[in-house]
Write a structure and sequence with these properties.
The protein is of the alpha/beta class. It contains 38 helices and 16 strands.
Length: 839
Amino acid sequence: MLLSWAYLEYPLGGDPAAIEGRFREAYDCCVAADPGGREVNGALCGLATVLRHQGRFDDADRASRAALEQARAFGLPALDQATPLNDLGESASQRGDYAAARQLFHQALALLTPSTDMRPLASAIRNNLGLLEMAVGRFSQALQEFQASLELMEGCPPDFTFDPDEHRALTLGNIGTTYNTLGDTAQALRHLDEACAILTRIRPDTVQTAMALQQLSATLLQADDPRAEQRMRESVAIARRAAPRSLTTAHVLTGLADQLYGEREGEARDLLKEASVILEEVAPRSRAMGNVLAGLIGLHMFNGETSLADSLTIRLLNIARGLEDSELTLRSLELLALSAEEAGDAQTAIRHLDEAIAIAERMRVYAPPGQARSQAVGALKPMAYDVLIAVLLDNWRPGNDERSFDVMESFRARSLLDLLDERDRGDPGRPPDDESAVAALLAQVNHEIAATPDPADLETLERRRLELQERAETLARRRYLALPEYDQASFAPRDVLDDLRGLLAEDTLYIAYEVTVRATYRWLVRKCRIWSGFVSLSSDELPDLVTSAVGSRDDGARVRLAQLLDLPEASVAGVTRLIVSSSGALHRLPFEILPLQAGGIAADRWTISYVPSAAVMLAILRRGTSLAKPGTFIGYGADSERYGTVPFVDEVKSIAELFGDGGRFFLGPQATKRRVTETVAGHRYVHFATHGLVDDARPAYSGLVLSPPEPGDGPVYGIPDTLQTYELFRLPLVATELVTCSACESGVGVVRTGDGLVGMAEALFSAGARWVVVSLWEVSDVATKDLMMIFYQGLEAGLDVPDALAAAKAEVRGWLDLEKWGEEPFWAAFVALGATPRR
């Protein structure tokens, strides 16, 4: 009776000291009745849990070891041996001994069978393993463990030691925190809202609820939600009441201090001191202590107390290394580098930043696979890259131009580069039917969201979208993680600069820009030389300048942006072609429209094309498959019930006729989604004359609008008349040199940190295309038809893609009827993205 009372009272927020006493009393009674009974084991394990939640790890471990020894000595069932092993693993994990924790968790799992009574404990262990994977930056594996934990608890009946609702809430909180780390705030909030709702209902005044509220608050802060501080204060109040000396209380105190930093410095300092007093006693080398130290370091640096900050940072780094905690080690190294930079010690700063970037690379490798990777790569990019570029260029010495270029390339367009590398290492296979079915449902829900004005309906649909998105990502993650080569994902590309120089023709200049909060940097690369420097345009002003220059055709904005092409004469002597790799808002700028100091515009002097990065360009050019034979063209000119007829889809027919027997086309009702997927393979040139559908909130569901399915087409996955970005990834384009999307805004996408412009072009490169021609804004169908005819005539005459497009633009600009044909919005919208050397 005492044992049951203690187990029932503790989760409800009873006084920990009183409950500890009840467990001890229950233990004494059970030993007197039957020293080899399971009740003795249960009393010891319950006591260990109460002690651990109070931060009394040594006492908790003594109780857990006693339970383990009793279970082994009296031959108790495997469950009674696995439980204290899991308890010891939790204690080791919270104190920062991850290696020991992992070993203990796996020992516990090895004792368990799939039987129903063992599933609750197996579920708890999987959750604990997920927390370990999170700590070392293996986020895909963490999500995999959390999902396994949820599946194991399905259908498990509650008993006085296991509450499925509580366990589900704790696991949902961990999933939400992982999604927040990966930059997916919507998914994070969905899971954390549910976790908090469950725990505030069933465990309103416990450390579990305090932790869930802290996780929710951190995500709300990331989303700039004003409720963040309120939720964090609720968390602190609960933790102080439930377990004032516990590790959880220290953790939530630190979370509140982080939110107050820079606004209420005195209160933040007091909170951190309170947390540090707790942790010095219960877990001085834990991750929680590392977070406290990081907060104190920030306060000392803010107040100019450099020596205090440095001493704490060294302690923080020692803790982080001992934990093998990737994120905490990376933060420590960044702080040491900033301090060294401030002190003028560039070489020490560079050494710390090099190590930080190596850690960031390992974390990136284990980001989610497939298309979900793009968002995660941006969220995981640390400031170390930008700081290292700044230190190298602010402290110039021979070799720093080359070195800073390599650093910039190491994080640029990484998710696309990973997709290309994945294809080279072996495609993980087409999604099985269950994945395809979920993808189709997800596409349908996104379509309904776009067409639904009712807020109540939107809330329901959005919830359904997030559920399906998580299911799709879970299925894809399992497929990828099952591959033996998954852990061989590529690290940062090496020797890019040397390979790039070997590729460039004598008349070609490669220009890369990197927009950071510190400065806008620029690298100029020719066959035998590299230049680096700064452009006097800040990250804050660039978006508005680009919008004014493109949308309003504002001359003042263009003059300001013209300094992007204010290049040293030695760098452009003899140059006729520019290859531009943009950054941030510059992805939406066609450099051809920029004025030159000598008069005219950039389009008058150079042929310009664009690439996501030098490494991507090299990867595309190295593809081993052969292109389709010259003179093979297929085009699709679609009508749409939703968006109306594209007036000049017959441009497709006219272009196809240029290729004679090698030209094919499908117009009007024939240009369906099924027709595209069945006929697009094996053509050198692929052309879409369609409307473009842009979804900035969900770029995977942007797409090309085609004609509705024909009778007899059978079931069509996804939106029946739209080829969406996520589907473009799977088109068979390995033999295709060029895909042209003469659609409204087909090149528009979402600009993400470390990945550039995420949209249809990225998908088409991944599918196999060498070149993609897209439009950056809405284009007149009349002008498009004529420009495209001239463009393809140039290709047939032997010009490569950028030269043919430049020639077409020049001819359109030169026509006499300027109001109809030569106005800039018509010719400047189309840009050539892809890889070249000149053929």
